[in-house]
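Support request, please re-run this one:
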Amino acid sequence: MPGDRRKPRRKELGGAMPDRNRQRPGGEAARPIRVLVADDHAILRDGIRTLLEAQPDIEVVGEASDGVEAVELARQLKPDVVLLDIGMPGMNGIEATRTILQDVPETRVLILSMHDNEEYIFPILEAGASGYVLKRSAATELVSALRAVVQGHTILHPDVAAKVLAGVSRRQRGEGGEGPPKRVDGLTERETEILTLIAQGLTNQEIADRLFISIKTVQAHRSNIMEKLDLHDAVELTKYAIRHGLISLDD
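Re-run finished. Output below.
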């Protein structure tokens, strides 16, 4: 449940624990895959821990109940994989993924989510996640996905992979009513996207929620846009967006 924060649990020797001393060819012991589990539902974290710790080659080294805690523990523990939900309090999974991969680049991020729509899939993959598993398939796919991402593979649930391919195809053909993404000279693609949303009347918080970024990031982009374009308020930004075809008067 939210607010239930657990410190990484350390195993004591003895008892009926799985044998984690895997053997490489030649008899050399291999280190288990060290996993940090981040989800805001304690019951789900317990279920994942039980599933993973039944495997002789996987060790759960910590649990986090929100995105901020996930980033902090990733920095401390440097796990092989962070198993991460997208919708978490404090910091969403997309921002957490970016931060973890920036601060602990040797760590892989595997997403475990109930969402299979494109508005979640594309931003999290662009943030650098190595895989995307749906919660409804965790019992059958999660363990193999963890092993695969540690080996450098990208793993997508079949439904997610189909939507990625369909979305890429639409973008290439300019279908879906949106056409190819428009760009404004001097602005990055992200700044152009934020300028368009500002011109459509969205607040900073609404833009942050739409793009799965923090409100501070939106504010920074907004300041950069105004400085680059020498504009001073939302009205001027809106007029600029209309003149450059980012939005129409019907939007």
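Confidence is low (pLDDT under 50) at residues 1-19, 21-28, 176-181. DSSP finds ten helices and eight strands in the chain.
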